[in-house]
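Memo to structure team: turn this sequence into structure tokens by end of day. - J.P.
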Amino acid sequence: EASSAGSIPPLNPNKPTWIIDPIDGTTNFASALPLTCVSIGYCVNGKPVMGVVYAPFTEELYLAVDGQGAYRNGERLVVGGGSGSSDNNNKTSTSLLSQSVVNAEFGYARSEESINKMTQGMTNILKTTGCLALRMMGSGVLDLCYVASGRLGVVYSGVADEGWKPWDYCAGVCIVTEAGAKVEALKGTTTGVPFDLYSDSIVCATSQELLEETRRVVLGGVSEE
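Reply from structure team:
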């Protein structure tokens, strides 16, 4: 994450690249909150092909390799039920926003315009469809792992200018997609397009239907500019 101090160099598709975040959920870590992790991702041709995430306080190790599935502490993760952890059988694995646990991350945007956009997105959910619960975990990598394990139905960020960085995406995107979840940019039309690790927004959900419903509701009445 040393590149965070300056410009982030683009991925060279001709050079396999490690993308590492030694502490994701830095504020949680500094505040002695247990939602923090180490994230290690590996990209080939600009695509995440391996993800390893270790959450030391919960002693959970998430691992995924492209085409080989996703695992938590050795147990297969598959969103929407079926084989794998018992977490995958709860109600967050659904195509209905009203029945999902939704996690939003606000980041560090603090202008009045940005605050209005971010809070409007949450207001839209509560007023339009409702949801089981709204959360803000403070660790983007764990957010994605929790979608993979069925603990969350949806995670989104980037309504304003609070999007994530490649080290927030890389390992988690590999894990959650190998578990069968869907990942796209929150803003714009990106269905069917591989997720861009330099995207300034993200929406990840246990199904395509839930992803599209979340995007539609969150951005309803919110300018994307």
